[in-house]
Specification:
heterodimer, A: 237 residues, Rossmann fold, 6-stranded mixed beta sheet, 3-stranded antiparallel beta sheet, 9 strands, B: 579 residues, 2 domains, 22 helices
Chain lengths: 237, 579
């Protein structure tokens, strides 16, 4: 399974944020979407998640590299974890999971609610508290957890490690790694170290275009300098 | 010093006009249809900026005179009426009319200025331009506050002086015309000085200077006290001699001088701290907005939902349980008030009947009318069976022909708008990030559940009003045609259903909120304004109740059907998080 971005354009007034983007994302890999602040990472995710309309272009799934079929992206195909976790604050963690599982009739959960909580390392005494009283990190875990339960084909992670403490960030990284099989994961960040540490591939969002970075270069000592130079180039563009 | 003042004021006004212009362009660009056409370069079009600046100056001039004209207009009109009354009652003694007019004008102005100017002095008010200038450009907060305050003082002085010129030409005493602007300046100085003094005291304990219920109550009491005193003074033919009014004015002048010293001696850090805290004496709308969001979020785990509710039914039941007070309090209080008023009136009526006609006749009357009520007949007086002459005939006419006016109380009692705010802040805002929540079949499933829930909440006061209307009908002779009582229930129910559907559907079709519960969408506002105008016309239309019942039934069915269809079709595109 591949996720294809084809000639995607998105403008806000006269400012073109995404300029004729083309890219193919492959299943089972974590893609680090790297770009400077304001480069359009969130806009790209919002377009894919159909939160905003695109000006032109298309995105779809296809079953293989040589396949000509275009499989439409449905809302249930996408899991979206945003950097500022938003969860329904009037529910407890347990109530939210119960509701989420019931609404997704097509899903057969492979764990009980408490097993899911254990999997995400959410403490027992948090499980029956209102979500409004959860810490930032636990809210983030809840958001990740429901997206894991929904088993989407495409997982969009918009800077999910921002402002997490080192322990929670490490736990989240492990969860993301363990969930990569059978789906396409796109992880946006503006932190190069995080991208290098977690992702199988790095994609630069630069000048409104998606540019792959050769994964064989990941180990090079001057790899970081090359990326920084590429991103800095934006200033002179 | 004057040069420094001019320089600072120019910076403030320049920034104010930039903020105003950009906000206007932003609002226009967010307006449906127009927004799509307008280009981004509008933000930098000099020609339009100049036009905006001219309009801004016109607005400043208008504001300069309008409030003063209104204030002085009220003071002078009241003085004129008082002079006429006293003159007719020969209570002016040997005072000339002109002199006595000046006396009353000074008295009324002192009262008006004390409340109007003191309560309207917002030295520490947090505004966008202050925020930028103090916290981003790091301007001296004291210099900024004092410059703005001096600008306000100058505007007020000029405003009163020029507005009072015309009445002065028509005979208002010169001391009154010239005295009022000076007095206003000193009262404002006193108010500003008092604010500084109050903040110094409060700040000692590091408390922000926010409004309190006790403070608000004190304001209400202070506003209410002078009016009975004035009433007794005028009806009794008394007056406050000019020399005492001059003495009171002198006290204000001295207080103003004290206020000026307080202002000048206040430190830069005090002004900066005052601005930083808060948020202090924020604009009422901002304070109310924060309080509203806080009230939505103040909830506790109060058990969970019993029974076998699942999915969206479960979500909705939990939402109602955790927001019970917010959702139910208003409709329940309104219902109880309506029913209690009716019960009081009926009890009073029965008691009067009992004292006038005795126990046995009263019991007979009550039993006869309970029977009549059950049989859908009208009120019957056993002592005077033919007497249907009632002081309620006007209300009967209203119930027969003007039930559309019930849209006004329905609009007041309805809780749907507030409910949609709570839905967004505590629920939809977060769930909208999940793809399942944006599927049309999911949207309409939750929409239907919420619609039924809102109707079941808002129907309580609507039914209480229907009972009230039916009691009026009952007391004034009963039904004009069979099932009229039931028709009134149907009309009230239809109004409640339509109203709930209206608010819920425009929430789904124009989702107007971003991170707070304040409306940001131009389309939502346009829908609201159009609806309000339509309603203000409709409520006056007279329609006989049987025709209205038929119209309302058909309208409600069609409205619910089409609004629901529209939501099903459009909401997947419109009901989403706004950037």
């Amino acid at each position: 399974m591949e996720f294809v971005i084809s000639h995607l354009v998105k403008s806000y007034g006269s400012k073109q944020v995404l300029k004729d983007c083309d890219f193919v994302f492959e299943e089972g890999r974590i893609y680090g979407l790297l770009g400077r602040n304001g480069s359009g990472k969130t806009t790209f995710f919002n377009c894919v998640n159909s939160d905003i309309d695109v000006n032109s272009g298309d995105f779809y799934f296809r079953s293989g590299k040589d396949s000509q079929d275009k499989i439409s992206v449905l809302p249930e195909d996408i899991g979206y974890v945003v950097s500022t976790p938003t969860v329904p604050e009037f529910m407890t963690g347990r109530e939210f999971l119960k509701f989420f599982i019931e609404v997704h009739e097509e899903i057969t959960p492979d764990k009980t609610i408490d097993e899911y909580f254990d999997y995400m390392m959410i403490p027992e005494d948090d499980r029956d508290r209102l979500l409004k009283d959860y810490s930032h990190g636990t809210k983030n875990k809840m958001q990740m957890l429901v997206n894991i339960i929904a088993k989407p084909r495409l997982m969009l992670l918009d800077e999910p490690l921002t402002s997490l403490d080192v322990i929670v960030a490490e736990e989240m990284k492990n969860v993301i790694r363990s969930q990569k099989e059978g789906r396409i994961t796109i992880f946006s960040t503006h932190l190069l170290d995080v991208a290098v540490d977690l992702c199988d591939e790095i994609v630069l969002l630069n000048h409104g275009r998606l540019e792959p970075i050769d994964k064989n270069n990941l180990g090079d000592s001057d790899f970081k300098e090359k990326i920084i130079a590429a991103l800095r180039d934006e200033e002179n563009a | 010093m004057l040069k420094e003042f001019r320089k600072t004021l120019a910076k403030i006004l320049h920034l104010r006009s930039i903020i105003g212009y950009n906000s206007l362009v932003f609002a226009l660009k967010k307006t449906p249809l127009i927004g799509k056409i307008l280009p981004d370069r509008l933000y930098s079009t000099t020609f339009l900026k100049v036009i905006y600046w001219i309009l801004h100056v016109i607005r400043e001039v208008f504001e300069l005179f309008f409030s003063k004209m209104m204030g002085l207009g009220c003071v002078y009109t009241a003085s004129l009426v008082a002079v006429m009354l006293y003159d007719t009652g020969k209570k002016l003694g040997d005072m000339s009319k002109q002199y006595s007019f000046g006396m009353f004008a000074l008295l009324f102005f002192l009262i008006y200025a004390f409340f109007g100017i003191v309560m309207n002095t917002k030295l520490f008010e947090k505004t966008t331009e202050k925020d930028y200038l103090v916290f981003m450009i790091r301007m001296n907060a004291k210099k900024l506050d004092l410059t703005l305050f001096a600008y306000d003082l100058a505007r007020m002085f000029i405003g009163y002086l020029l507005t009072g010129l015309v009445p002065a030409l028509f005979g208002v005493p010169v001391w009154c015309w010239l005295g009022i602007p000076f007095l206003a300046v000193f009262i404002k100085l006193f108010a500003a000085g008092f604010l500084v003094f109050r903040y110094k005291i409060k700040n000692r304990h590091h408390k922000p200077l926010t409004g309190t219920p006790a403070g608000d109550m004190l304001k209400v009491v202070l506003i209410c006290v002078p009016f009975p005193l004035l009433f007794f003074m005028i009806t009794g033919g008394y007056y406050v001699p000019v020399k005492y009014l001059f003495m009171i004015s002198g006290v204000f002048i001295l207080s103003g001088i004290w206020g000026l010293f307080e202002l000048v001696s206040s430190s830069h850090s005090l002004h900066r701290k005052a601005l930083h805290d808060g948020a202090i004496i924020e604009k009422e709308t901002v304070r109310a907005e924060k309080a509203r969001v806080r009230s939505f979020k103040s909830m506790k785990v109060n058990g969970t939902v019993k029974g076998n509710k699942k999915g969206f039914e479960y979500l909705n039941a939990l939402f109602v349980k955790r927001h019970f007070k917010m959702l139910m309090l208003k409709p329940i209080i309104c219902t109880v008030i309506i029913l209690a008023l009716m019960a009081l009136y009926i009890s009073g009526f029965i008691y009067d009947y009992y004292t006038e006609s005795g126990y046995e006749d009263c019991i007979k009357m009550v039993i006869t009318n309970l029977r009549n009520l059950i049989l859908f007949k009208g009120f019957e007086d056993p002592l005077n069976p033919n007497g249907l002459d009632s002081e309620f005939q006007f209300f009967r006419y209203a119930v027969q022909n003007h039930l559309l006016a019930l849209f006004i109380p329905i609009a007041i009692f309805d809780n749907t708008y507030k409910s949609t705010q709570a839905m967004y802040i505590n629920c939809d805002n977060s769930l909208m990030t999940f793809s399942f929540f944006k599927k049309s079949k999911m949207i309409i499933r939750l929409f239907d559940i919420r619609f039924k829930q809102l109707v079941s909440i808002n129907i309580l006061p609507a039914m209480a009003m229907a009972i009230g209307c039916n009691l009026i009908l009952f007391a004034t002779g009963g039904q004009d045609y069979p099932f009229q009582y039931l028709m009134i229930f149907a009309i009230c129910a239809c109004m409640c259903i339509s109203y709930s559907m209206y608010w819920l559907s425009i929430y789904y079709l124009f989702q107007p909120y971003t991170t707070t519960a304040s409306v940001k969408g131009g389309a939502y506002n346009a829908a609201y304004i159009t609806f309000s105008i339509l309603m203000s016309v409709i409520v006056w239309i007279g329609v006989r109740s049987q025709i209205l019942a038929a119209i309302m039934l058909v309208f409600t069915v069609l409205f619910v059907f089409f609004a629901r269809k529209l939501v099903l079709k459009r909401a997947p595109k419109t009901w989403r998080i706004k950037a």
